[in-house]
Write a structure and sequence with these properties.
The chain is mainly beta. It contains three helices and ten strands, in the order E-E-E-E-E-E-E-H-E-E-H-H-E. A hairpin with a 5-residue loop joins strand 1 and strand 2.
Length: about 130
């Protein structure tokens, strides 16, 4: 997670940031504006990824996440017998508990297992 210490805005990853042009005016002042994709004088300006509110990268800090995943995605589950034995599974990159997939109709479970299916083992992390 990335946090702007100036405005307090939080970003999940770098894709929430915007490109900014920071220009040194030469008289100990700088100006910042959104980058529009045009040419930039590299001798006195630089393009950075910054906070959309503050238009600078000076206040951004990278905070480690407080949460750690308990399971990681494994291989495809190939049979209904293996599916029933699992406590947790990954379905479309999201983890789900046993009760969730046991409530499925047989046809839905059968369609989602196998090499082309979207159900994967959830392997417990140590």
């Amino acid at each position: 997670m990335i946090v702007c210490k100036n405005c307090g805005r939080k970003f999940r990853d770098k894709f929430g940031l915007v490109l900014c042009v920071i220009t040194d005016n030469g008289d100990d002042t700088v100006t910042a504006e959104r980058y529009d994709g045009g040419d930039v004088d590299e001798t006195k300006s630089k393009v950075v990824s910054g906070c959309p509110n503050c238009l600078t990268d000076a206040f951004l800090i990278d905070k480690p996440s407080r949460y750690k995943r308990k399971y990681r995605k494994g291989g495809h589950i190939l049979s209904l017998d293996e599916l029933v034995k699992q406590d947790f599974v990954y379905w479309h990159d999201k983890i789900h508990p046993r009760g969730w997939f046991l409530s499925w109709q047989f046809r839905m479970a059968a369609d989602n297992i196998g090499e082309n299916g979207c159900i994967f083992y959830a392997i417990k992390e140590e």
